[in-house]
Each structure stands twice: as C-alpha cells, then as structure tokens.
Give the backbone structure.
Amino acid sequence: MKKRTAITDLKAMKERGEKIVMITAYEYSSARFVEEAGIPLILVGDSLGNVVLGYDSTVPVTMDEMVHHVKPVVRATQRTHVIADMPFGSFQTSPEDALRNAARLLKEGGAQSVKLEGGKHVADTVRRLTQAGIPVMGHLGLTPQSINQLGGYKVQGKTPAAAVRILNDAMALQEAGAYAIVLEAVPVRVAEIITEKLDIPTIGIGAGWGCDGQVQVWHDLLGLFSDFVPRHAGRYANLGPTIVEALKAYAADVRDGSFPTEKESFIKKPAAATPTETTPAH
Ligand code: KIV
C-alpha cells in the first residue's frame, strides 16, 4: 500500500533543507492532478468560500461545507497528505468544540491533519487537539477569518513590535504541538527570522523565499479566478480565457448543428434480416 506523506516527513524535509510544496484543492479531479504532479501536501482551505462557493470572505464557511469538500480530495489521493482547514467559529468557542469539529474532519472527511488560524490565544486548543492525536498546522500573519478585525487583506508584522508578536505566536504554537505554521502576507525578513527560530517548518504565502515551503491557492496558480488576484499569487497558467474560448466554440457548434457528429453519437445497427429463433436441442 502506498504511504501518504506524514507530518514527520515534513520535519525531516526542513532538516535536510528540502523545500515543501503545498497547494489547495477542493474536489476530486483537481486533487488527482495534484497527486499526479507529485505535490506532497493538499490544503482543503476555507478559501473555498471565495473561489468555489462565491462568498465574499471565508467567514461564512461551515463545518458541513468543509467536510463535503475534504471527502473527494481524500478519495482522489493515496500519497498526498490532506490538511483540512477549520472554518471560522469551529474552534474559537472552546478546545472541546475544536476537538469535536477537528475529529469530524478526520473521521468523516478522512483528512490527516487540520489547520487553524491564530497565535497564543489558540495555543490551548492546539495542545488539546495534538494531545488527542490530531496533528495541527498553525496559520499566522494575515489570517483571513479575522478580516473584520484586521480591516482588510493587509500585510502583517510591518512594525518591529508586530513582527515580535508574530514570532512569539509562532513559538507558542510550536510549544503547543503544532507540526508546521503557514505564514501569510508578512515581510520577507520577518518570515526568515521566524523560520530560523522554529524547529517546525514554515509554509509561506506572500512571505518570501525564506520559508521552508510555499502554498498557493489552486485558482490563483492556474488563472481560474479573476474576482480578486492577490499580489502574492504565483501565475503558472491562465486557464480562465482558454476555458471561455472552449465554451464559446462548443456553443457555436451546437447552434450551427456541427455538434454532435457521428463520433459522439450511437447509431443503431440495422436489424438482422432473419429474426433468430431458439434452436431446438438435438
Ligand atoms: O484557505 C486557504 O486557502 C489558506 C491558504 C491561503 C493558506 O488558508
């Protein structure tokens, strides 16, 4: 049986200086592509609220929506480690609520670990989950679930005091048992220092090249979402216009009758000249 990437593999990768690659995916077909590409980590991010469900932030995403999207990603993969995001409201109320919801993501969804946003104030929750056997990835810097508090999608840790706060949060998460930390939208030097100070890997998004790994959102990387393209999005393909062209070509062919052809159709063979009858047994 093929083995999925484990959290212990990631620590070893940091120690070897081998960069860790992570990407989001939210359903079966894209998760199959990720595995084919040999990427070891999929995050079923609550960014699905924006790019799949059309919400204007990640705040409305529910536990049921997360479980629904984690399941097909797990079904599509055998080797990739699947991380499920804990949506807003699923872990802030108490460590016990967090444990119940994280357990759903593992038991019902089939994920191998969870990610949650926040620093020192969620350290007890991280401890509760890890003690119960649920690996936790932290998420610091720009934490989109706090958009209403942050007042916009802005770079975090720009002042020395703010940078120190993020570092202290990172140390608190590591101490509580987190196995890795996403650093989102923080200055390059801040991410570098945090990465040097931590034993666990950092995974950056808009945090420069000094992190132990990188994560990108599927739709940003492939040019599939144009409502909002963050500056930190790495564009490796622009599939949106290609898809629109293909759809226009299909619509034109249907309208002028050139689709479908025989190739896409089932033509009934002419009936046999003499109807077959049961041959009497000798
Ligand atoms: O939800 C998400 O996709 C994320 C990444 C941006 C790290 O949290």
Summary: Residues 24, 43, 45-47, 85, 139, 182, 184, 205, 215, 217 surround 3-methyl-2-oxobutanoic acid (CB under 6 Å). Strands lie at 20-24, 41-44, 81-85, 113-115, 136-141, 180-184, 202-205, 213-216.
